[in-house]
Amino acid sequence: MMKITEIRAGKLSIPLKKPFKTALRSMDAVFTNIFEIRTDAGVSGYGEAPPTAVITGDTDESIKGAVAGRIAPVIIGRNVADLNEILDEMDKSVLGNTSAKAAVDIALHDLWGKLYGYPLYRLFGGSIREMVTDYTISLNSPEEMVRDSVTAVADGYKALKIKLGNDFRVDMERLSCIRNAVGDSILIRVDANQGWKPKEAVRAIKFMEDKGLDIELVEQPVAYHDIDGLRYVTNAVDTVILADESVKSPPDALKLISTRAADMINIKLMKSGGLGGALRICAIAEAAGVECMIGCMMESKVAISAAVHLASAKKIITKFDLDAPILCAHDPVEGGAAFRGAAISPRDAPGLGIESINGVVWN
């Protein structure tokens, strides 16, 4: 028996090595909310929720308010062993607020693993799997993006995720220059972050194909709500189309897959409300034979560790975009997922394997 006694909230700021820029936002540090769920056994579980208002709609205030006002009252006093029942009640306690739910879900799963003494990937039925992340190249001038790409390749990264989406001509210049600079052996993934209209997207992707730029996939070329536009793009090009912001929940995944609006799905815990929702998305994708990427927001290694455990257990996840901790100037998380350059694997320790988090300012 392990009963939940308290949820403690804090803030964590981690400077980035250089500013992170996309078509939607720019930031120079990871700002995230850390949550610690305490139990009567003296064991704690950790979760986190960064505010990503332009993607999930969640802000610092909404995350803290949802956890304190709606979620905490339905989980305090509950037995950690009743995980699925607790997650169901949490989901019903407030509409949306997927980042707040993800933070508590991750902490509850951490406790669940500690209760039984196993790492999460084992409890999910998996085994240790080493995965290789891509490296994100922020949206900047073509010259700066080329320099960043060459540096990443020199550091051992074999797959680059190139942020585009604000100007067709400059975007194509960026991409052409990067391909010429890194050579043909490096995988290039393009992320437009909803930056194109459907016809613009087809024009851009056809240009990439005609120029022989050998793009592995294009992520979320159009607005998240434009499923018809996404399907139009998917059907009009040969390049693999990856849905990201268009898939925020298991019902979204079911709709997108059933209408064949994209070739792949990007799973992010802050969109799915945590590991519970992500596991359901994986089940839908497995049934349909649709491969997934595991991605992240600008998060610390707390949430990234949860994503790594999920990816280690679910083979339908075939591509990995978990470089947020690599982009940070330092890592405040002791334990958790093990990073060795581009290679990542879960630790063989109970739950998430996190020992402590340095620098948290507790409320």
**How much of the polypeptide forms β-strand, as a percent range?**
15-25%
The helix count comes to: 13
Structural class category:
alpha/beta
CATH fold-level label of the largest domain: TIM Barrel
* Beta strand count: 17
- The first-to-last residue Cα distance is 28 Å
At CATH level 2, the architecture of the largest domain is Alpha-Beta Barrel
Number of domains: 2
Shape: globular
What is the fourth-level CATH superfamily of the largest domain?
A: Enolase-like C-terminal domain
Order of helices and strands: EEEHHHHEEHEHEHEHEHEHHEHEHEEEEE
Oligomerization state of this entry?
single chain
Helix share bin? 25-40%
- Name the poorly predicted regions: none
> Main sheet, how many strands, which sense, barrel?
8 strands, parallel
Structure description:
The protein has helices at 60-75, 83-93, 98-116, 120-123, 142-154, 168-182, 198-210, 227-236, 250-258, 269-272, 275-288, 301-313, 324-327, and strands spanning 4-21, 26-39, 44-49, 131-132, 135-137, 159-163, 187-191, 215-219, 240-243, 264-267, 292-294, 317-320, 333-335, 338-340, 343-345, 354-357, 361-362. It is an alpha/beta fold. The protein folds into two domains: 4-117, Enolase-like, domain 1 (2-Layer Sandwich); 122-357, Enolase-like C-terminal domain (TIM Barrel). An eight-stranded parallel β-sheet has the order 5-6-7-8-9-10-11-12. Strands 3-2-1-17 form a four-stranded antiparallel β-sheet. A three-stranded antiparallel β-sheet has the order 4-15-14. A hairpin with a 4-residue loop joins strand 2 and strand 3 (44-49). The mean pLDDT is 96.
